[in-house]
Amino acid sequence: MSYPDWEQIKRDSFDDSLMQGSNLPMIDDETPTFMARPLVHTAEELKGADVVIIGSAYVAGTSDYAGVSINDWAAAAKRVRQQSCRYRSGYIQDFDIDVFEHLKVVDYGDAVVPESCQKEQTAESVLEAQANVEAKVNDALAVGAIPIVIGQNSPCSSYAIAKCISEVTDGNVGMVSLDTHWDSQEGNDFLTDDPRIAGSANWKIKTYEFLENFKIPNLVEIGERGMLENPKTVRNYVANGAEFIPMWRIRRHLGIEGVCEKMQRAYDGTDGVYVHFDMDVIGGAGPVGGDILGELAEPIGMTDYEVLRIANEVGLRGLTGMSFICIPPGSKLVYRLIVYVVMYLMAGLVEGGHARR
Asked: Strand, helix or coil at 239?
């Protein structure tokens, strides 16, 4: 089943909704703002915001990625926003909390992906796209807000956010990372062969190489499994103090509550925490079959509940910024899952006393 166009989504979503389609703030003709939050265009307009939603349509490559249409990957932020507008309000019945009564949430639109980057990706075009994301993230951080970047590939939707957080944090920075892969291959980025690029296969190792206040003992790595990695990679992270929680450990004895307890490692002795959700972590255990991910799918995936429980726990503890990559493309239900992740995280912020009003 193909993904519906915006006109069909409006017909399906607005019949019973308190959000009327004609009143939605629109980024463009097919893209409403996230949860119908106000659209802001300038850094000045961000003042007073608690959470800032930012889109990034950057995809690593100019043809299919992991066997899936590049157009479907690139549309993630737009489609998440489209699906968000089927919901009546910011009220989450699970918690009896209306998030928007406590948090000022705004949508800062999309960081520009240069046209040159969409046709032929060079190191310079990728760095330009990365800089455009950084500019929006820095604007959010400058007013004390939490940037949440809904994107697809590195470096624009991972390293770019980590870099900005590193630069505004005086002390060490912890990381909570969900992923199927360690993204820590040695050597240069496979796409550009340029040592400056923290690309899809090596952004995490570049983060710890380039950003001095990101410390491996404050890394909580969750969700990898199976036979994908070089043993040297995993053993080096563990030997240097990372808290590694593979899916087998979760399923065998730890459980999701045990995972949440061990997330404290990212917070101990740090002044900031970067949270990164690579959504290929759900594999085939999420709301749709794993094959939607193409070559990125692996068994023993994390369930949608487990992802949401971790997101809520992050909110309870607080965070500096967050990013998404590899959002499984083409499924309305998966895009709705991202909406839930953001909203349940913000409910955690409210419950944890992190709301400013």
From this structure: helix
Domain of residue 149, residue span: 6-351
Domain with residue 336: its CATH number is 3.40.800.10
In a domain, 149, yes or no: yes
**Does any domain span residue 323?**
yes
Query: Looking at the domain assignment, is residue 18 inside a domain?
Result: yes
Domain count, the chain: 1
Q: How many CA atoms lie within 13 A of 289 on its CB side?
A: 4
Supply 343's token pair: 């909203």
Chain centroid to CA 250: 22
Domain-embedded: residue 357: no
**Per-residue pLDDT tens for 235-268?**
999 999 999 999 999 999 999 999 999 999 999 9
Asked if residue 183 lies in contact with residue 224, where contact means CB atoms within 8 angstroms, the answer is: no
CB 54 within 8 A of CB 149: yes
pTM above 0.85, yes or no: yes
Q: What is the mean pLDDT of residues 123-144?
A: 97
Rg (CA), the chain: 19
Token pair recorded at residue 264: 């404290």
Q: Give Cα separations from 151 to 45, 55, 92, 342, 355 (angstroms).
A: 23, 6, 24, 13, 25
Beta pairing partners, 323: 149, 276
